[in-house]
Structures are given as structure tokens and as C-alpha cells.
Design a protein that fits this description.
By secondary structure, the chain is of the alpha+beta class. Helices cover 56% and strands 20% of the residues.
């Protein structure tokens, strides 16, 4: 099935209202744009124009750096939502869930890359509510490898932590050398 291209400000306004309604929490303008960008279904220029029109007509508001859907926007989303194929809804929702999942992972992990003699150091702290579960520094010979390590840890810090703990608990002396 071929879907029509989202090439009108009207349709983009519906999609912005839809995603703001489904998220049901404050979202920064940067986060909203990232959701739209990750979905690959809305052109930036249509997005920028549509967002400004939603704010000007009272469907959405800027509050403390966040974009908030007002009642007018919620009702418009409900009424006009059927104009947008489900494919586009799913792409936007997937992008939103991906973004907020990444934000949650990043809040649980403090990670940085620092230049050191002969390379780079990736410093990582995986946090719990009241304390650090683990702090580790890893050496990388170049910035590309350091960023790769950082990004791999950020993909799933809980699995990284679990794997380190499992290795530490299962680690045994190498008996072949004796």
C-alpha cells in the first residue's frame, strides 16, 4: 500500500496534535522536533510552520520551554485524526517511545569522554536512586572508539552493568598457566 506524502501544513498540524495528545506529558520543543525528525514522515519546513500556526491559533502553547497541547488541539486531533493513515501515527509513536526511552537511559547513566595521554578515557557511572551502582573508566586509543564505547553503554546501561557483574562473579583463575 502506498501512503500519500505528508505535504500540507494542515496534515502536519493534525500529526503534531496527535503526538502531543498521545505523549500526555510536557515535551520540550527540541524533543518534539527530534520525534518528528526521527519519524522521517514530516518535512522540517512544514513542521515549523504547523507548530507556529498551532501556537498562534491556541491549539498549543509554549510553557516553561515545553510545548503543551491545549483543549482546542486535543479536540482537533480527535476530530481530524482519521485523515492521517495509521502508518504515520505508528512512525510518530515509535519515534516518541524511542526518544523517551533514550532520555530515561541517559538519566540513569553519567558518561563522558575525556582526552588523556595517548588516547581517550570513557568514564561511566551507572546510577540507582540514591547511589552509584558502578563507576568504571575504559581506555580507547581514538575518539571514534571512545564514542562507540559510550554509545554502546548508553544503548542499554542495565545490560552493561549486569554483564560486568556476571563476569566479575564468574571470573576464575586461569588454571592453564599453572
Amino acid at each position: 500500500m502506498i501512503y500519500p506524502e505528508i505535504n500540507s501544513v494542515f496534515h502536519v498540524k493534525i500529526m503534531i496534535c496527535f503526538i502531543l495528545d498521545r505523549i500526555s506529558k510536557p515535551v520540550s520543543e527540541e524533543q518534539l522536533y527530534e520525534i518528528v525528525h526521527l519519524s522521517e514522515v514530516i518535512n522540517y519546513f512544514y513542521y515549523a510552520e504547523a507548530l507556529e500556526e498551532l501556537i498562534q491559533n491556541g491549539s498549543a502553547s509554549r510553557v516553561d520551554g515545553n510545548i503543551i497541547l491545549n483543549e482546542k488541539g486535543r479536540l482537533g486531533s480527535e476530530y481530524f485524526n482519521s485523515y492521517i493513515p495509521e502508518y504515520f501515527h505508528n512512525r510518530l509513536l515509535k519515534s516518541a517511545y524511542s526518544l523517551f526511552s533514550r532520555v530515561a537511559r541517559e538519566s540513569e547513566t553519567d558518561i563522558s569522554v575525556n582526552k588523556v595521554p595517548n588516547g581517550f578515557e570513557v568514564n561511566c557511572a551507572i546510577k540507582d536512586v540514591s547511589y552509584d551502582l558502578m563507576r568504571v573508566s575504559l581506555y580507547a586509543p581514538d575518539i571514534e572508539q571512545a564514542n562507540l564505547i559510550k554509545n554502546k553503554i548508553l544503548k542499554n546501561p542495565a545490560v552493561f552493568y549486569r554483564n560486568v557483574i556476571e563476569y566479575a562473579l564468574e571470573n576464575e583463575e586461569n588454571k592453564e598457566n599453572f
